[in-house]
Design a protein that fits this description.
By secondary structure, this protein is mostly helical. It has five helices and no strands. The protein is elongated, with a radius of gyration of 22 Å. The protein starts with a helix and ends in a 7-residue tail after the last helix. The C terminus is likely disordered.
C-alpha cells in the first residue's frame, strides 16, 4: 500500500511513529555518508603512502585524509544531534504520558556527542600541528595554553 494513503487514513499516533522512523532512516543515511567519507580518507591515506614511497617529494591534491576525516566527523555529529533530539523528545513524551522516561538513552546520546566533539577537536589539533603555516594566531595560542598547565589560571 502507498505510504501517503496509509498516512492519510492513519491515526495521529501512527503518523507520529511513521515520521519518527523516516527521520531515523534519514539520520542513518547521514551516518552512512560519514562512514563513507571515513572510508575514503583511508583510501587517500593509502594513496599518499604509496605515492611518497615512489617519490618522497610528491603530494596528493586536496582534500587530504585529515580534511576528509574532519568532514566525516561533522556529518556524524549532525546525525548524532538528530538522534539526541529524538531521544529527548521521546523521553518528554513518555514523561507527559505519566510513564518513566528512558533517560539513559538521552545520557548515552549526549556522551556520544561529547566523544565525537572531542575527536573532532583532536583531529583539528592534529591538522594544525601537522601544518603550522596554516595555523592561525588564536589556534597557536590555544595550543600553547593547553601545553602549559601553569597558564590555565588566566
Amino acid at each position: 500500500m502507498d505510504q501517503d494513503l496509509v498516512q492519510a487514513n492513519a491515526s495521529e499516533e501512527l503518523k507520529q511513529e511513521l515520521g519518527l522512523l523516516c527521520r531515523s532512516q534519514a539520520m542513518l543515511r547521514t551516518l552512512f555518508l560519514g562512514i563513507a567519507l571515513q572510508y575514503r580518507s583511508l583510501d587517500v591515506q593509502r594513496q599518499k603512502l604509496l605515492l611518497q614511497a615512489e617519490d618522497p617529494a610528491a603530494s596528493l591534491p586536496c582534500p587530504g585524509p585529515l580534511e576528509l576525516q574532519n568532514a566525516a566527523s561533522l556529518i556524524v555529529l549532525c546525525a548524532l544531534f538528530g538522534f539526541q533530539k529524538q531521544a529527548e523528545e521521546l523521553a518528554a513524551q513518555a514523561a507527559r504520558a505519566g510513564e518513566c522516561p528512558d533517560l539513559l538513552s538521552v545520557k548515552l546520546g549526549a556522551t556520544s556527542i561529547l566523544i565525537a566533539l572531542i575527536r573532532l577537536a583532536r583531529l583539528h589539533l592534529l591538522e594544525a600541528a601537522s601544518n603550522p603555516k596554516a595555523s592561525s594566531e588564536p589556534e597557536q595560542e590555544f595550543l600553547e595554553l593547553t601545553n602549559d598547565p601553569a597558564d590555565l589560571s588566566l
